[in-house]
Specification:
alpha+beta, single chain, seven-stranded mixed β-sheet, L-fuculose-1-phosphate Aldolase, globular
């Protein structure tokens, strides 16, 4: 794809708040690629535009996550109308359910959907995620599940995903992949960090064929309560997100362009 076709909006053409959201979202794509969550042009992360909350930013079709920059992101309204004057287009399946979540849940600012291999493996097991370590305990009571229906491009599936998600911040999409949401990019991203790690722990245990030492239910609940109390009403992952921003800068500051 020629370089000129990768620009959807320039810094001088959008508000300061939107540009800041673009920079943070571009960083999320770069770090997600670095963590191995996605190595294709598919899957999506979206971020609500702070000073235009009926719109959101989303990656266009055709760009790998290692190529995403602040200027290559599309601004789209909640009725799926592309507001950015560009020839770049979003993928219909991703646009459908990401917009449905943001439309139904105005308190959320970010949605993140990936197909990491360990996440797909867990999504194809009958039991779903099991809680066997401290990191996994942080997700207890916050994971929803949604049945696979084929490509999520039918408008009718969006509301079903929203209904299944409820008030949770993470979803295992059966036989499909992983979804997290957050009040900030940092919250959705840090939740996905914990979810992918928990899936990897489970897959390694399954591969080893070991007898799994399950945590007692009361310990899982107690540990989760401790973590929830420590977080309070604040959106989680903000300190972690600042670290990831610095990491994105160190890997390649070009994401800011």
């Amino acid at each position: 794809m020629p370089e000129g076709t990768m620009i959807a909006a320039r810094k001088s053409e959008v508000s300061e708040a939107q540009w800041d959201a673009r920079v943070n979202l571009a960083a999320a794509f770069r770090i997600a690629y670095h963590l191995g969550w996605n190595s294709t042009i598919r899957n999506h992360i979206t971020a609500r535009v702070p000073d235009a909350p009926d719109t959101f930013l989303m990656n266009p079709m055709g760009l790998g996550w290692h190529e995403i920059t602040a200027s290559s992101l599309l601004q789209i309204d909640l009725d799926c109308k592309i507001l950015t004057p560009t020839n770049l287009k979003p993928a219909p399946a991703g646009l459908n359910f990401h917009s449905a979540i943001l439309r139904a849940k105005p308190d959320l600012a970010c949605t993140l959907h990936v197909h990491p291999l360990d996440g797909i493996v867990v999504s194809a097991t009958k039991q779903g995620l099991i809680y066997v370590d401290q990191g996994g305990c942080s997700l207890y009571g916050d994971i929803a599940y949604h049945d696979y229906e084929g490509l999520a491009q039918d408008e009718e599936e969006g509301p079903r995903i929203v209904a299944d998600l409820g008030d949770k911040h993470a979803m295992i999409m059966w036989n499909h992949g992983l979804l997290t949401v957050g009040r900030t990019i940092g919250e959705a991203f840090s939740t996905m960090v914990r979810l992918t790690a928990a899936c990897s722990v489970q897959v390694k245990l399954m591969t080893a064929g070991a007898d799994i030492r399950h945590l007692p239910q009361e310990i899982v609940e107690h540990t989760n309560a401790q973590m929830t109390a420590r977080r309070g009403n604040k959106s989680g992952g903000e300190l972690d997100w600042q670290m990831y921003l610095r990491q994105a800068e160190q890997l390649d500051p070009g994401f800011r362009t």
